């Protein structure tokens, strides 16, 4: 794959070196196009050494090769990381005053922006409008992470880690029929959203709610009961649903991944918070996908201060109470409305034991919950949790057939799950 890595002038430019290495070590051909300001943070010799190619910031170097047109035309992917507020503004308004901004105008491949800036700049109305404009034209703008910024500041605006950006770029390139940035400006009535995709399994006009991650139940201000869920599968489902045209709400329990393009993210921590957020969003939804891993139990009491060790009473006894079954609650809500919507997808993370196999336990769970589609995966320390691939088994209400998918990427699993959902909607 021919990749153009644009680097603009922010302190996070040093992270782009690691992103460059991830692309080159995977065998991709990378051309680095920094801005003049970016070279104040990381010099041209570094980019040339890591990419194996000469580096230029202006349109006058090797002018006989017409680089301001050729580089963009020949790319399979353009990613700008970090993307400053200045570069976002220039890209949104078609300003072409250096090699990078010219390349952005000539590219007809997927274009990814990874913004990095101070929180106030990211949240400014001008930046938000520029991001909306870019997304409306088919560009992918990955929301920045939240964390420590330059100096003592903390907040949204941090460049996501290189491995996260690399995975996001590959998912965008692998997505079906990714649209290239369009020449035409959006109509005034356009609502900003994800890039358009041509898909036979369109979710245009549908509202989808997805939960992801693992809940945490506090013991005291320091400790909690939790699980190993990374949220990757739920995020893949949200991303693919948005790519197919759905309006997506993603309820995320303790997930540190960047938000998918055009997806509304609702952060939660505990199972009770997850239940409230999902049931609230589900009222007007066509589909609810419960990919999160909520804790079955929570401590009966939560200590106001850190629980200390005691030599007089060694050990610790915990009283746990059962958390509500969120899927059962969704089914009950739907029944109370005498409605066929939303289609409800449950997940069953199971381990086999002396009492039954993974699928036997999953069938029993499916019968209890009353969902329309169940996604079953076998879990363990080295299975599913945190991995980039997955193997699942799909069970549909009213059918004895089990459809197995994988081993496959989590985006491919998401496609299969949403294909099954579409058949239920139809």
TrEMBL record:
Residues 203-423 form the DNA/pantothenate metabolism flavoprotein C-terminal domain. GO terms for biological process: coenzyme A biosynthetic process; pantothenate catabolic process. Binds 1 FMN per subunit. GO terms for molecular function: FMN binding; metal ion binding; phosphopantothenate--cysteine ligase activity; phosphopantothenoylcysteine decarboxylase activity. PANTHER family: HOMO-OLIGOMERIC FLAVIN CONTAINING CYS DECARBOXYLASE FAMILY, PHOSPHOPANTOTHENOYLCYSTEINE DECARBOXYLASE. Catalyzes two sequential steps in the biosynthesis of coenzyme A. In the first step cysteine is conjugated to 4'-phosphopantothenate to form 4-phosphopantothenoylcysteine. In the second step the latter compound is decarboxylated to form 4'-phosphopantotheine. This is Coenzyme A biosynthesis bifunctional protein CoaBC. It comes from Intrasporangium oryzae NRRL B-24470. The gene is coaBC.
């Amino acid at each position: 794959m021919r990749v153009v890595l644009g680097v603009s002038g922010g302190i996070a430019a040093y992270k782009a070196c690691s992103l460059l290495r991830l692309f080159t070590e995977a065998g991709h051909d990378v051309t680095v196009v920094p801005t003049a300001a970016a070279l104040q943070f990381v010099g041209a010799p570094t980019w040339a050494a890591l990419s194996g190619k000469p580096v230029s910031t202006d349109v006058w170097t090797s002018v006989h090769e017409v680089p301001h047109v050729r580089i963009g035309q020949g790319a399979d992917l353009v990613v700008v990381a970090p993307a400053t507020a200045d570069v976002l503004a220039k890209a949104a308004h078609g300003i072409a005053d250096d090699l990078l901004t010219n390349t952005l105008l000539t590219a007809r491949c997927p274009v990814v922006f990874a913004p990095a800036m101070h929180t106030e700049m990211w949240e400014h109305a001008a930046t938000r409008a520029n991001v909306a404009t870019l997304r409306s034209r088919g560009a992918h703008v990955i929301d920045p992470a939240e964390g420590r910024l330059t100096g003592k500041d903390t907040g949204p605006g941090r460049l996501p880690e290189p491995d996260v950006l690399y995975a996001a770029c590959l998912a965008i390139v692998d997505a079906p029929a990714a649209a290239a940035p369009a020449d035409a400006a959006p109509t005034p009535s356009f609502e900003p959203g994800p890039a358009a995709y041509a898909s036979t399994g369109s979710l245009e006009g549908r509202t989808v709610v997805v939960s992801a991650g693992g809940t945490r139940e506090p013991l005291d201000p320091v400790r909690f009961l939790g699980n190993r869920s990374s949220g990757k599968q739920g995020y893949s489902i949200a991303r693919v649903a948005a790519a197919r045209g759905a309006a997506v709400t993603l309820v995320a329990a303790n997930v540190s991944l960047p938000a998918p393009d055009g997806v509304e993210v609702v952060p939660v921590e505990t199972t009770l918070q997850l239940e409230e957020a999902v049931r609230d969003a589900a009222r007007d939804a066509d589909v609810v996908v419960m990919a999160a891993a909520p804790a079955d139990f929570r401590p009966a009491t939560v200590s106001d201060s850190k629980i200390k060790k005691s030599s007089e009473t060694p050990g610790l006894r915990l009283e746990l109470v059962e958390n509500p079954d969120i899927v059962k609650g969704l089914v009950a809500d739907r029944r109370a409305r005498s409605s066929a919507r939303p289609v409800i997808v449950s997940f069953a993370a199971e381990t086999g034991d002396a009492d039954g196999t993974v699928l036997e336990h999953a069938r029993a769970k499916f019968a209890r919950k009353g969902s329309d589609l169940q996604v079953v995966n076998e879990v363990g320390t080295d299975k599913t949790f945190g991995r980039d691939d997955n193997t699942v088994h799909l069970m549909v209400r009213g059918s004895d057939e089990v459809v197995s998918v994988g081993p496959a990427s989590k985006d491919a699993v998401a496609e299969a799950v949403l294909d099954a959902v579409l058949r239920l909607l139809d």
